[in-house]
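step 4 of 6: structure.
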Amino acid sequence: MKSLRRNWAVHLMLVVGAISFLLPFYWMLNTSLKGPTELALSPPSWWPAMPRFENYPDAWHAVPFPRYFLNTILVAGSIVVGVVVTSGLSAFAFSFFRFRGREGMFNTFLSTMMVPEPVYIISSYILLFNLPGGGRDGWIDDYSALIVPWLAHVFSIFLLRQHFLSFPPDLVDAAVIDGCGPVRFLFSMVLPLSKAALTTVCLFTFINTWNSFLWPLVMTNSDSIRPIQVGLAFFASEQGTEHGLMMAAAVFSIAPLLIAYFFAQKQIIESLTHTGLKG
Amino acid sequence: MPDREPVSPLQRGRWGPWMPWLFLAPAALIIFTFRILPIVSALGVSFFDASFGKVRGFVGLAQYQKLFADPDFWQSMGNTLWFVAGSVPLSVGTSLLFAMMLRRGVRFLGLYRTIYFLPVVTSFVAVSMVWKLIFHEDVGLANSVLRVFGGHGLHWLSESTGIFELALARFGVDLPTWAEGPSLALVCVIIVSAWRGIGYNVVIFLAGLQNIPEHYYEAARIDGAGRFGIFRNVTWPLLTPTTFYVVVMTMILSFQVFAPIYLMTGPPVGGPLGTTSVIVYYLFEKGFDAGGNMGYASAVALVLFAIILALTLFQRKVVEKRVHYA
């Protein structure tokens, strides 16, 4: 009897927890469908009496959201491709080659993981500002500032190396006896056997880039470059009183990732908990 | 590596000795240019006068002197410490509780985990926007719930009074300024920040709990230990490495809080009365908003780095020393 009651308490708390995690999402959706009169109600209503779907197109056209989305997709896509290539190649070198300075190089890479983004963002700005090419302010306010510094990712190298080291040494010998060079070995043996690890790298790189905020906030000035998070933040600060439009914009800015999460939750949870989470 | 072959069989041929470096080059080029160079030069920049991207004259330790003399810096530092002191126990405690409840083959475990993890996938921008609306004084959900239960509405994000002062004011106790605690506005941000991260920590704790071998529980049960006894003598000690990891990681992330402060507080950001300005916002404001004094902002960055480095080294030391699995 006692354990049954306790079980009920556990379930009750779990449900209360679930509600408190879902409620803000419901509130976002609820508010995004309210018209001006309903938004002014105090206390607020729990569901929109007269759903105003026009909030979505209105928000979509109020500022160049299509452009922000394109920018984010371009930046995140390039970074995912770049990270996979650079980490795949360097993890391969760290796992299958022997050379002087290997451990030193690897440890140098690893040590950069201890330094968080806010620490180097100022000096990165100065560096990007003074690089040739790009626009008036060097690479600042240019796609290059959003993409190039993120084309290599130490944790991905670490993760892929861990995976590559689990391959039996005989695999290399067999490949060499069959006359396989390193490039063919990488593409026809190593990569096809690493699909799960590569998926992990792609997922967290894409999600972290999609959600990154401080870096693009600092490195961009114009609408044509701005990614979705920064565009959304500016929209919120400019239209601070238009709650319906703001929530509509919030909904469509999180929708792509939430839809992806719906289909691949297990991989996404695994992938994000493998690595750090960014603010 | 004396026990290994000097050269991998893959490295035969004329290009052999260069092969590793060719494979390493792309990653090394990016990491050295865009990570290591900025990290190393951050220290250097803090000794200079720099306006936006342009570095001017050498000023020695002047930026640090100015920084340590600025009361706003100390207020941001104090707020950051409150933020860490509030969000770490809130986030870690709640996640541990949820993980414990989810562990024992509860029904719908997958569903609960999916729901708890939902905010982790959501951007802080969208999360902050909806919570700011929930804490809205007039049309917010938080105040309407309070009023249903017969309470008064609170000022939430525009309340600069410390929470201890607020809690004790109704008993007629007036605390001295230093004991007022973090402002209610800062506490709102603490709650939101913890809310977003709990799902992440729950998953880490669940993995840690799964690593505890079942026979320890069986032995404890045979010895007649109760639920609390099992938790105290089996779960808690064997979970120490996980708990320690989660605490330190949450601390390191909390020291860097920026997005929810920037998006929920103010205007002006950091308000009311500077009670929600944190160290990374202070850095951002000085370096990018107010005239772009980047030398000064680099000095702030170095102080932040010192704190995080100390935490990281402390973690390593402890992990090496005494955190061992059975």
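step 5 of 6: annotate
 - The two ends of chain A are 45 Å apart (CA to CA).
 - Residues 65-96 of chain A form the longest helix (32 residues).
step 6 of 6: archive
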